[in-house]
Amino acid sequence: MELHVKVVEAAEVPNMDTAGKSDPYVVLTLNTSSQKWKTKHKNNTATPVWNEQFTLPITTKLDDILTVEMYDKDDISKDDFISKVVIQVNKIPQGKVNDSWYTMHPGKGVKTGGKLRLVVHLTKAGAEPFKA
C-alpha cells in the first residue's frame, strides 16, 4: 500500500518571528519508517502554498500513524516547532481522494496551530495517485 499526500497550503499560521511572520514548512513522518518527508519553506507568510506531493510506504496491516508537523525555519537558531496533527492511516478510506483542512494542535507556548490543507489518497502500490 502507498499513501499519497499532497501538502497543499496552510492558513492562520501564527507569527513565530519577532520581526515579521513565519517561514513555515511541513514535515511528514510515519511511526513505521525512519524516513522523513519535508516541503520547502515559504518566506514570511501566514498563508503558505506548497502544492508538494509525497508517496509514503504503508504496511499491510495499516497500523501506520502519519504525523504532520509544521515548523518555522530560522537561520540563526534552531527551527521553531509550530504545530502538528496526527492521522491514523486505517481511518483513511482506501481508493478515495480526500481533500481536507486539518486543525493543527499548537506546540508549547504557541497560541494557535493554524490550519493545514492536505489531500490524501491511500492506494495499492503502483496505482496512479489522486485519481479516484
Report on this structure:
The chain has no helices and nine strands. The model has no long low-confidence stretch (mean pLDDT 96). It is elongated. Strand 5 (65-72) and strand 6 form a beta hairpin. A five-stranded antiparallel beta sheet has the order 3-2-5-6-8, with no helix packed on it. Helices cover 0% and strands 48% of the residues. The chain has strands at 2-11, 24-30, 36-38, 49-57, 65-72, 80-88, 97-103, 105-106, 115-123. The protein is mainly beta.
Summarize the structure.
With 132 residues, this protein is an all-beta fold. The protein has no helices and 9 strands.
* N-to-C CA distance: 15 Å
In terms of DSSP E residues, the strand content is: over 45%
The shape, in one word, is elongated
Residue-averaged pLDDT, rounded? 96
Order of strands, main sheet, comes to 3-2-5-6-8
* Cα-based radius of gyration, to the nearest Å: 15 Å
Tally the helices. Answer: 0
Helix content: under 10%
Low-confidence stretches: none
Structural class by sheet pairing and helices: mainly beta
The SSE order reads EEEEEEEEE
